[in-house]
Specification:
Number of domains: 1
Largest sheet: 7 strands, parallel
CATH architecture: 3-Layer(aba) Sandwich
Shape: globular
Strand content: 5-15%
Number of strands: 7
Strand order of the largest sheet: 3-2-1-4-5-6-7
CATH topology: Rossmann fold
CATH class: Alpha Beta
CATH superfamily: NAD(P)-binding Rossmann-like Domain
Helix content: 40-55%
Oligomer: single chain
Order of helices and strands: EHEHEHEHEHHEHHE
Length: 247
Amino acid sequence: MADRVVLVTGASRGIGRAIALALAAAGYAVGVNYVARRPEAERVVDEIRARGGEALALPADVSDRAAVEAMFQELDGRFGRLDALVNNAGIGRRVAALTAIDDDTWRRTLAVNLDGAFYCMRAAIPRLRAAGGGRIVNVSSGAARTGGAIGAHYAASKAGMLALTARAARELARDGIAVNAVLPSVIDTEMLGEIATSAEARERLAAQFPIGRFGRPEEVAQVVRFLVAEAPAYLTGESIALRGGRL
């Protein structure tokens, strides 16, 4: 049985990968969830193990509640406990006009981004209680507050995560389970290609931030590491934005 265990969803690349590596460095055994990118997930696991940590690649589409439960059972079988959950899995295909969003895009986006967070939290909570408390961090988005550039479907799904965070924090406070959200603004990952499709567009967008650049996955991971590994239980129900000075 590992001393401390965290599950990070959507951890094969980008922000999720950075979070998995940061929490492994903090001493957590890491469940590295992925959907289709098995080689990338295995590389994250290998990197953690090469640094002396413990990790396990866990395939599951978080929008499928049966797959989520199977994932948690596999995690139980390997590590025997759960101390933290980071809901990072998310999708976002740009559809600028609300009237152009088709039903499938709307439903799929909410299914992964919001239903997935709910299913994972529902499965995690009994396990966190059994461990005597723990941490949940939901990776939302600045789009939850501003509407963003990807579209209403994405913004709505990420705003829903904030409401879920607030309610869960109230319910779980006396169990010693702190629940918080982080709201990355524009981070330099593959999803950036959805809103800045050329070098010129990237330059224009980066210039909108007082810091003069996009955020880095590792910077989001530093905040998540603090919330999971260092922050007191009294810090709960908060939504922390990373926006490079942009108001």
